[in-house]
Amino acid sequence: MTIMECFRRRYHRSQRVRESDLLPGSRVIRAFFVIAAVLIAKSGAVGGGIQVAEHSARATGMGGAVVAATGDATSLHINPASLSFFPGMHFSFGATVQIPEEKFTAELPVRTETKMKALVNFPPNFYISYGSSAGFGAGLGVSVPVAAKTEWDPDWLGKRIVTKSEIRIITVTPAFSIRPSDILALGVGLNIAVPKLLYEERIPVSTSLQPASDATATYEAGGEMAYGIQVGVLYRPIEECSIGLSYRSPMKMSIDEGRLTYRDVPSQFAGRLANGTFLANVPYPSEVRTGLCWQPASWISAAADLQYGLWSDLTSFSVSFRDPSQPTVFVPTNWKNVLNARLGVEIAIADIFLRGGFRSDHSPVPDETLSPGLPDADATVYCAGFGYRVGDQLLLDFAFEIVHFRDRQITSSILTYGDAGEKFNGVYSSRTTSIALSISYSWH
């Protein structure tokens, strides 16, 4: 029996809150297990659609294969070394519209198909950079590398696991680059990140004199700033070929004032289901990317990237409480490392740029802890885009992508959804459609 299963049996023997077994903070641990699993498992580089791989329309159209690319200011998001190969002053602003679709089909004997409510994500991005002829470059990026949300019917089968969730991480990245020779550039950036979480679930409450009814628990957290670094190298041995390498360090996302609030609580439970606060440290893992960009002619370039997420470093996280009577809880995670591949091509015809791309993403999340709060699966991504140069300084970019997730059948979930502790096993089916737009302006 795992540590988590011991915890669940201790605090949630029947998942029904009674006057005799209400324990302050016990619901926080259970829900935060799902919240932190979401933040850890989905924020890095994998297939679940929460990471905003679409940090610009150009990158989206090329499948995200931009580690060795030097075409615009947005490349500092992945490899700050590219700034030295991009002279002049450049500004870019854009946004991505993400439309997720999710369906869960429960196993027999309760074979139920539920579709998630229609939602739209709208993470923006902003970049500004300057490159000098002397080989120095500097830039600033503001982006939302992690953004996702779900919302299910308040009375659906998994209401006691989740009815609503949202996660968002805003990152500000100042970056610098130098080019000690004509063929080599080095870059470094500081990542300043702030996470925000929202999670809701329904709690069954009853007494000997009153039939069961549901209260709603809402968990909200806005963490303090977390800091990390990213470094990059860009090597151009010949004019037609570039080789890129970048590394993003791990960060510790601190939640110091997590808030738990209840709604629709019967009066006799008001003292036991009291609002409270919690604290946690959730690690954000490191990542390595490498890529090759080849330009055999002035009108065409092709790129290929590999992205390696170091998820095996995440063995556990902890949750503690303002109430000193509640002990700190350590929860094991045991994720696995994943390797993702990206391919892209760009063709220039006069003032028009045509782009295409492909991504293959893998999920590090084990079946046992996969949650409908933010489900994840291996994915295949198809991308297309185009750009149009308006004069010498203004560039408009547009991209479209479809993320096809493999159906994921879960048979070993530790999550339960009913009074008898039924396991939340079933099949997750997902798809996400994204549309990206960027506007860039340059001063040479």
Describe this structure in words.
It is a single chain. The protein has three helices and 21 strands. With about 450 residues, it is mainly beta. The protein has a 14-stranded antiparallel beta barrel with strand order 1-3-4-5-6-8-9-12-13-16-17-18-19-21. The longest helix is centred in the N-terminal third of the chain and has 17 residues, at about 25-40. It is elongated, with a radius of gyration of 24 Å. The N and C termini lie far apart (about 65 Å).
Number of structurally distinct domains: 1
Q: What proportion of the residues form beta strands (DSSP E)?
A: over 45%
CATH fourth-tier homologous superfamily: Outer membrane protein transport protein (OMPP1/FadL/TodX)
Helix content: under 10%
- Poorly predicted tracts of residues: 1-26, 40-50
- Quick one: biggest sheet? 14 strands, antiparallel, barrel
CATH A-level architecture: Beta Barrel
Q: Kindly, what is the distance between the CA atoms of the first and last residues, rounded to a whole number of angstroms?
A: 64 Å
The counted number of beta strands is: 21
CATH class: Mainly Beta
Structural class: mainly beta
Shape: elongated
* Arrangement of strands in the largest sheet: 1-3-4-5-6-8-9-12-13-16-17-18-19-21
CATH topology: Porin
The helix/strand order is: HHHEEEEEEEEEEEEEEEEEEEEE
What oligomeric state do these chains adopt? single chain
Mean pLDDT: 83
Q: Radius of gyration from the CA trace?
A: 24 Å
Q: Report the total helices.
A: 3
